[in-house]
UniProtKB/TrEMBL annotation:
<dbReference type="InterPro" id="IPR051264">
    <property type="entry name" value="FAD-oxidored/transferase_4"/>
</dbReference>
<dbReference type="InterPro" id="IPR016167">
    <property type="entry name" value="FAD-bd_PCMH_sub1"/>
</dbReference>
<dbReference type="InterPro" id="IPR006094">
    <property type="entry name" value="Oxid_FAD_bind_N"/>
</dbReference>
<dbReference type="InterPro" id="IPR016171">
    <property type="entry name" value="Vanillyl_alc_oxidase_C-sub2"/>
</dbReference>
<dbReference type="InterPro" id="IPR016164">
    <property type="entry name" value="FAD-linked_Oxase-like_C"/>
</dbReference>
<keyword id="KW-0285">Flavoprotein</keyword>
<dbReference type="Pfam" id="PF02913">
    <property type="entry name" value="FAD-oxidase_C"/>
</dbReference>
<feature type="domain" description="FAD-binding PCMH-type">
    <location>
        <begin position="35"/>
        <end position="217"/>
    </location>
</feature>
<dbReference type="InterPro" id="IPR004113">
    <property type="entry name" value="FAD-bd_oxidored_4_C"/>
</dbReference>
<comment type="similarity">
    <text>Belongs to the FAD-binding oxidoreductase/transferase type 4 family.</text>
</comment>
<dbReference type="InterPro" id="IPR016169">
    <property type="entry name" value="FAD-bd_PCMH_sub2"/>
</dbReference>
<protein>
    <submittedName>
        <fullName>FAD/FMN-containing dehydrogenase</fullName>
    </submittedName>
</protein>
<dbReference type="InterPro" id="IPR036318">
    <property type="entry name" value="FAD-bd_PCMH-like_sf"/>
</dbReference>
<dbReference type="Pfam" id="PF01565">
    <property type="entry name" value="FAD_binding_4"/>
</dbReference>
<dbReference type="InterPro" id="IPR016166">
    <property type="entry name" value="FAD-bd_PCMH"/>
</dbReference>
<keyword id="KW-0274">FAD</keyword>
Amino acid sequence: MLPDLMNLLRNAVGTDHVLSGETAAPYCTDWRGRYSGKALAVVLPGDTQQVAAVVALCAEHRIAIVPQGGNTSLSGGAVPLPQGQQIVINLSRMNKILALDTTNYTLTVEAGCTLAKVREAAEQVNRLFPLGLTAIAGQCEIGGNISTNAGGIGVLRYGNMRDLVLGLEVVLPDGRVWDGLRSLRKDNTGYDLKHLFIGAEGTLGIITAAVLKLFPHPQSVVTACVAVSDPAVAVKLLAHLRANCGDKISAFEIISRSCLDLVLAHIPDTVEPFVTRYEWIVLIELSDVLQAPLDAPLLNALQAFGTGILEFAIDSKNNAVSWWNLRKNISEAQKREGISIKHDVAVPISHVAEFIAQANTALRATYNGLRIVAFGHIGDGNIHYNVSMLDSAKNPTFIAQSQQVNSIVYDIVHGLNGSISAEHGLGQLKRNEIHHYKSALELELMRSIKHTLDPNNLMNPGKVM
C-alpha cells in the first residue's frame, strides 16, 4: 500500500516535493537536537489545495500526519515520532503575502511565511506586526507561531499570538478546507472556531493561511537597563511604570546574573551593562506612535520609584542594541554551554518573585552545585527557568533526574495558580506532565474536541495529550 501512497503523494505535489530517506532526515529532528524521529515521507505542498489533497490521501490510508513549519519548536511538537509511521507535511513552500490592507490594519499571509518576512512586509508600509521572537524570527513560520500560540517580548502590550489573529484557513483532518479568513474585529455569530486551532499544536488541523492584526509603527522608542536588588523589586517597578507610563511600555524583561555570565562567555561582542556586576537587571522598552521623546517620562518614573533600584541607564539607540543583544542571546549561550532542564512557566505577575524564590530554595535544598538560569517576560508573568549543574561532568547524571526536577518546579507553579507551559506549548515534552495539573473535566473536554474533529487520531498524535 505504501508504494501506491507514495506515488499518489508525488502526483499531488510533484516528485521533487516528496522526500524520503536521507533527504527527509533534517525534517525529523528539532533545532535543539533533543527530539528525533523517522517519517515515511516529508511532503512539501505548494498551496492549500495540495495540502488538502495530501491530508485526504493520508486519511484514506489511515496514515498519521505531523504538520511542520520552520521546525523551531521547543517542545518537540513538530517532529515525527521514532516509530517511523507518520508523514510530515512541511509548509515552508507556502510563503506568499496574500493581502495587505493598511486601512484595516491587516495582513493576510500563507502559513509558511517566516516571522521576519511578515514583520518586514508590515514595516514597508509603516505598520508593525509585534510578535517579538528576535532570536529565531528568520526561521520560525507564522503557521507554527499560531499553532503554538507564541508569545515573546511584546505580549505585555500586544498580547500572545492568539490576540494577533483575526482569521484562519485550516485543512481539517479529513481533507476538507475551512475558510475562516475574515478580517473582522467583531463577528458575534456563534463559536469563534479559529481559537480551537490557535495553540492546538497541529492536533486538530493544519493552518494554511491567516489574517493578522497590524499596529501603527512606533516613531519613538527608548530603552532602560535597570539593576535591581531582587525580582520582588522588579515586580513593584513594573506596577509603578504601568501607573506612570501606561500602555507605552512595550517590554519588561528580567535577566539573572547566571544568564549574563553565560552570554558574556559564549557570545562574541557582548559586554557587561554596568561596571558593577549586579545579580539582576531589567530591560524596559517604551514606545509611542508620536515622535515626542520618551526619555524624560521614563527618567522621571525611575527616579520617583524609591529603594530597590541599584543603578540604571537610559538610551534610545546605541547602548540599547547592546543591552537587547544580551537578552536575545540567552538561549543560544545556554545551548553552547550544554543541555539543561528547561521550564517555560507562567504565574500571575504578583507571584513572579515568589515563584523564583520558592523554586530556588526547593531545588538547592535537594541538589548541590546548581546553575539556575532565570529570565524572561516578567511583564506577563512568563519566566524561563532552566536548571543544570555548574560542574559539566555532573550534568548528565543531573539531567537524567529531570522528572523529579520538573515535579518540584511544576508543583510550585501549580500552587501559585500558574501554568507549566506559557508560550512553548506541550508537544512531546509535557504531554504526560499536563495530566497532573489540569482537571479531569478539562482533559475530558479537550479529548472530546479532539475526537470530534479527528476521530481517527491522525493529526499529530503523541503530542499535547
